[in-house]
Amino acid sequence: MDITAIVPIRAFQDNYIWCLRRGSTAVVVDPGDADPVLDYLSNEGLWLAAILTTHHHGDHVGGNTKLLTKYNVPVFGPAREKIPGITKALREGDKIEVPGIGLELEVFDVPGHTAGHIAYYGEGVLFCGDTLFSCGCGRLFEGTAAQMHASLSKLAALPGRTLVYCAHEYTLSNLRFARAADPGNPAIDEREASARAALAAGSPSLPSTVESELAANPFLRSGNPALAASASRHAGRALTSPVEVFATLRKWKDGF
Ligand code: ZN
Ligand code: FE
After folding, report:
1. Peptide bond before residue 207 is cis, with ω within 30 degrees of 0
2. Which of 124, 134, 226, 246 fits a 20 to 30 Å CA distance from 22?
3. In which order are the strands placed within the sheet that holds 5-11?
4. Residue 225 domain-assigned?
5. By the 8 A CB rule, do 195 and 170 touch?
6. Residue 78: which domain range?
7. Of 52, 116, 56, the residue nearest 87 (C-alpha)
């Protein structure tokens, strides 16, 4: 990978706008707010070369228009959603060469949080927006549990070492639920220790890895017998499929 660094730009309460840097070039993923991006670029002496978008929510696209007034750059985003300033509409299987930084990314359709949500994967890194969080997943605003389960399964099938760049700092609150849903899973303790250490040092708890999520994230473990038993107890009936287990976990967490 030619990029030198993937750096978080903090926005709002808990959003991360991931900034991909190479030399004096920068690309941002999901710039919900333009101002912190413009500050960062000017402080670091960087030029913006492109904007990547995962879905249409304001905290992910709200900065596009203002950024475009200063930088006339391509905007990549989901073909099935309305994205301000979009110039490259993407869908499952598309491959893009990210301008200016020499990074090739592949596009996955990952509906569930929103109907047209996409994720970007390549060269060992994944930008998954609000689909997969560390130890959690996005809420089902526009999709079904079956769709989200299929989307997460796609991401879970990526190589274990894949670095997972989520769009929010939700790890500790997600771990509280993971502990309730999947008691006795030792991977939850390990993930909590690493997240607390990172946060105490002033760093994000991200990126995570696919391997760590497979071990600790209940929403990637709906095929696990212990978790299925736990979800069945919560539902008060025997859940027979991973999708049912997933749907129960998602509802359980909505009210947690
Ligand atoms: Zn969202
Ligand atoms: Fe969001």
Report:
1. yes
2. 134
3. 5-11, 15-22, 25-29, 47-52, 75-78, 88-90
4. no
5. no
6. 5-217
7. 52
**Amino acid sitting at position 45:** G
**242 assigned to some structural domain:** no
Q: At what angle do helices 225-235 and 171-181 cross, to 10 degrees?
A: 80
Burial 98-110 (b: 16+ CB within 10 A, else e): bbbbebebebbbb
Is the overall model pTM greater than 0.90, yes or no? Answer: yes
Which residues sit opposite 138 in a β-bridge?
A: none
- Give CA–CA dist 63/26, Å, rounded: 15
In a domain, 130, yes or no: yes
**Structural domain count of the chain:** 1
pLDDT digits (tens, 9 = 90+) for 151-205: 999 999 999 999 999 999 999 999 999 999 999 999 999 999 999 999 999 999 9
Ligand index nearest the alpha carbon of residue 167: 2
Which residue in 59, 109, 117, 149 is the catalytic one? 59
Residue 2 has pLDDT above 60, yes or no: no
Whether 182 is catalytic is: no
Q: Is the pLDDT of residue 89 over 70?
A: yes
Q: Which of 1-10, 45-54, 65-74 has the lowest mean pLDDT?
A: 1-10
Contact 57, 15 (CB under 8 A): no
Looking up residue 190, the CATH number of its domain turns out to be 3.60.15.10
Distance 251 CA to ligand 1 centre (A): 17
List 81's β-bridge partners, or say none. Answer: none
Question: Is there a catalytic annotation at residue 57?
Answer: yes
Rounded distance from Cα 56 to ligand 1 centre (Å): 7
Q: 130 alpha carbon to ligand 1 midpoint, in Å? A: 5
Ligand index nearest the alpha carbon of residue 139 = 1
Q: Is residue 168 flagged as an active site residue?
A: yes
Position 253 in a domain: no
